Every structure is written in C-alpha cells, then in structure tokens.
Amino acid sequence: MKKIRMVSLALATIFFSPGQAYSNGGSDVEGERLRLSSQPELVAFLDRLQALVKKRDAQAFRKLIADDYFVSRDFGGTFRDLRPGWWNFASDFPFASRPAREDESWAKFKQFSGETAEEKSVYTQHSDVGVVRFDDETKEESWKSFAAELPRHYVQASDDDKSFCGEARPTAPLGWTSEDGSMAGETAFTKVKKVVLRASPSLKGKVVQVIRSSDDIVKIISDGALPDPEQTYRWIKVKFDGKKPVTGFVAARLIYFWPDTMLCFGKKTRNGPWQITGLIKGGD
Known about the structure:
Elements: H1 7-15, E1 33-35, H2 40-55, H3 58-62, E2 65-72, H4 85-92, H5 117-127, H6 136-149, E3 154-157, E4 163-166, E5 187-190, E6 195-198, E7 207-211, E8 217-220, E9 226-227, E10 234-240, E11 246-251, E12 255-256, E13 262-266, E14 275-280
Parallel strand pairs: 2-14
Antiparallel strand pairs: 1-3, 3-4, 4-13, 5-8, 5-12, 6-7, 8-10, 9-10, 10-11, 13-14
C-alpha cells in the first residue's frame, strides 16, 4: 500500500509533549493511509460516538475522552497541560464542558497579569472553558461541528496501527481518489520556487504565468488531475491571484495541500477501550 506523508502529522511530533500520543508516546505518528472500512473496531467506536451525538449525551461523551488528550498545531494556544482531557477537548467542542467542582485543583487559576486588557480577556476566555456553562446555541453548534469532523472514508494510521486520525485526505493531488470528492475549490500551495502555469494541460501549452516563490497559494478549479496525452504528467487547473489574477494548468506534482482538521482515536492496550485521543488542527 502506498504511503502518503501527512504534513500535519509530521508537525504533530513537534507539538506533542511526552506521553500525549496515546499509543506510541508521540515518537512517530506517520503510517499508512487506510480505508476506514478496514478497521471494524474503529468503525464500531465511531458509530457509538454518532449515537451519543444524536442523544446529545455530554456526560457519557466525556468518559470517552483520553486523560492525555492532545492538541497538535494549536496556534490559538488553547491547550493547557494540567487540565483534564475533556477540558482541552471542550476548548474546540464546548458541548463537553461542565462546571468545575471545588475539589478539582486544576480549576484554581493563578492570577494573570497581561500587558493589555485584550491579553487578559483572551486568558480569561481560555481559562473558563469547562468552568463556566456555554450558552445552548454554542453547545449545539459544537455537536454539529464534531459530527462533521468524524472520518468517513480514510484514516491515517500510526506506525504500529494502534492510533488513527481522520478524515485523512491526501496532501498531494496525485493521491486523490474519487472517494475524496472534487478538488474544485480546494486551496493548494506551490512546492518549488518556479512553477509554470500553462494555457493547456501540456508541456507544449503557452506559458501564461511563472510563480517564482514556493508556498504561494493557488485555488483549484478542476475536479481532478488531467492527463497529458503526450507525457506522463498530470495537470491541475488553478487560479493564481498575483498582481493580476490568472488561470492556467500546473503540473500536479508541483503543488500540495494542507490536511483538514483530524480527530484521533486509539487504545491504551490491545484489549482496552477505544477513546478520543487528540485533535490535529488543519490550516496553513
């Protein structure tokens, strides 16, 4: 089976603290991109989560969140090392929040002296997750957003096949399948410092633009990769918003995608219960 390197999962090894990766200690979370249907135990666990979503059973849900739940690519800074797993989960999915009990030492926050009122406000907002009750509308929306993040077709496995994150879409156009849907509307990034846009999907196509820096942003227009009738190349139609917006075809091997947000699931031991183990945030 072809291995696909997931960029966000590679970055995840940087952001994990010791012991946060549930099955393998965060040492190596890259593995194969697998069909979800090949993991029947995980499918059963996801069905259980879907059932709890329908019941809106937050209490039962909290019991399924790992104590060492991690958040990778946490650029918003909401993760707190000394908080319980459900608390950090609730930072992104508030339906799992609950008021703190007086006997919970983590709920006793230290005084924060920020430079500005804005800093104090941000700290208060993050610290109050799981302590104050969110309004019903916020909780309801978070139930929906969680359900939308559950994997449906593919998951990314750890090397020991004990942890799985998804939905795991390809990070390169050439790995895209029909189950991943249309590419149209996706944002992609250039890999190299010279990317040529052509008027047609061919090396003979007229050059309409040369992108001269890596990590420039293009917007995908075509549903998928188009073959070159005279070469082994495959082409993607894109729009590039430079000084003057242009559309053209770029070799598929020269662009890549950031993966979407992925929830992670795993077991502590072979016969242990399945749990929600972490969240790898998407974006660039």
